Structure formats: C-alpha cells, structure tokens
Amino acid sequence: MNFDIPSDDQALGDEVGRYARNVLAARAAELDLSGNFPAQNIRELSELGVMGVNIPAEYGGVGASALGIALVMENMTAGCAATASAVGAHYLATDALLIGGSESQKQRFLPVAATGKSLGAYALTEPRSGSDPAGMTTRARSDGGGFRINGTKHFITNGGEADFFVVFARSSDEPGSRGVSAFVVEAAGGGIAVSPPEPIMGIRGSRIYEVSFDCLVPAGNLLGSPGGGFKIAMAVLDRGRVDVAAMGIGLSSVALEAATAWAVERTAFSHKIADYQGIQWMLADMATTLEAARLLTYKAAWVRSQGVRFTAEAAMAKLFSSEAAGKITDLALQIHGGFGYTKALPIERYVRDARILRLFEGSSEIQRNIIARHLLAAAR
Prior knowledge:
Blueprint: H1 7-34, H2 39-48, H3 66-79, H4 81-100, H5 103-114, E1 120-123, E2 139-143, E3 146-157, E4 164-170, E5 180-186, E6 192-194, E7 208-218, E8 222-223, H6 229-265, E9 267-268, E10 271-272, H7 277-305, H8 311-336, H9 347-355, H10 364-379
Parallel strand pairs: 1-4
Antiparallel strand pairs: 2-3, 3-7, 4-5, 5-8, 6-7, 9-10
C-alpha cells in the first residue's frame, strides 16, 4: 500500500490549499451569512483545473489520481466547506458520465464540464426515498424518440444552478432496483421546476433544492443500458463517499489548528490553557482521531486506484471521517469556550458544516449496514 501522491497531483493540491486558506476562507463567513451560491469561487477554482480534477485528460480534465482528488477535496474544504460541497456534487454528476456514459456522451458533456462552464447536479434522492433509492417513484417512459421523465427529486445540491442533471428514474415495472435507469437531463431543454433553496443549518452557500421534472429527453441521453442505472448510482456513491471523507479531514484539520493556536494563546488562572492536562488530552485525542480518519480515507482512495471494488473501504472511511469531524469540531468549540459559540470566530460554522457529512452519500447508519453486509458475506 502506497500513499505517495503523484507529484503533479501534490502540486495541484498544494495550490488549491493556498487558494483555500488565502481566498476561500476569507469569503466563507459572508457566504454562510448570505446563503449565496459561491459562483466566484467556482469560476476561480475552474481556472485552477479543480472542476475537472476527476476527469481524464482526453476529455479536457486533469485526470488526477484517486489520492490526488482526495487531497484537493481536503484542502478545498479547509477553506470553505460550502464551496467544496458544490464542487463535490459536480464530481458526482461527472463520475456518473465516466462510469456509465458512452464515448460519444463523454465527448459531448465532459470537456465543457471540466472547464466549469457547465455545472452538474446528481439527482437521486426523492422526498420519500433517501436512504432507500431503490424505492424511487420518478418515472421515465418511452415517448417518441426519447423518454418522458416525470417526478420530483429532493435535497439536490446545485439544483438551481446546474446546467445538466444526472437523473435516476424508474423506466420499467421491474421490482426494486432492477427497473432504474440513468439519464442526462439538460437544463436548457426545459420542463424543470426548481424550488427556492432549502433553509439549511450549515454549508449554506452550497444550496440544495427540490427539483421537479416533466421533460422529454433524447434517447441518446440514456446512460448505460435500460435498467442499469442503480448500478451506476452505487458506483458513483462509492467515489463520493471518499470525497466526503476527505471533506471531513479538511474540516477536522482547520478545527484542530484553531484549537491548538487558541490553547497556546489563551490564559486562565494565570496559565496558558495549553498547560492544563485536560486541554492537552483533548488536543491529543483530536490529533489521533484526525490521523486515523486520514489513513482510512487514503486507504480507500488507494484501493480505488487499484481498479478493484472499494465499497467497504469507502464506507469505512466516510463513516469514521464524518463522525470524527463532528467530534473534533465540537472539541475545538469547547476549547474556545464562549468565544467558540459566537460568530466572531469560524468555529461554530465548522461545527454546523461538519454535521451534514454524517448524512451525505448515505447516513452513518447506512454505512454501518454496508460494512456489516461485506463482513457477513465474507463469513458465509
């Protein structure tokens, strides 16, 4: 197992890290307050190649390794988790094209997506079908030379800004997941109604929406084979879970840095609070937990790079890193005391931003189910 990141990917990750700390972090509080979409951040990240970091060079992207993608997500999140969330949703949509798309579909959609001039959204979740995507009710029926898609998706990141959606819909009456197909739906084609953005607790600049579809899409926009959409969706989520785990590392890192700096500077009872064993143990636990999260995440990325199935590794990394981010940001707030609870410092925002990570790409409970299923399958 080798966690060495290719030099080109490391250079890009470092450049994204500098931009995130110097630019994204300075804008994050205003985005959190306003709830505005981080359009300027997306444009500038596009210039760095970030919007195409997961897309191979033959389609106009960077073609970074799995470890390189994780590093970019980690460093971007350290500056602004909301921006990283919007970019991560774009990765889900383009990953679906990479996994299920034909060569002509890849040539058509990916180069413009790699430049950031076309923003993607991933439309899987429905109002009554979140953790159980096989229970979706959105339908795709043959209509002339294409498909009529009708239904509503919920909690769709980038839904109000996307130029294209990867939409999963039931295209036959086969039970469970077998009748689910995947489609590229272009926003310019019409027939899409988007709700106002949801009022959310954290990552407020990464807006999520309810999106209703009543649109005709060409037959050429079907990804993969009819009924093959669920397999595409699950393969995409494996990749997305590693991205979310990397987001957890980014948030945990800045929270630990802030807590350490505060402990060294803050005085209580005539001593720096860093001198107290209680604070030292909190920092030690935070650092150890962060390192474990990083190792699990990098292992999942490395396994992915071997071209083998990495479902269990992705679930473990996402489960541990997302829950670690919750613990570490909360401890950082505790170390800051009352100041951590105010908006004068970014600590309370870190706590709010970290909370979504235990829900993104499947809740912690779903990850535990996935891990247990793999364990039991190996034992039988």
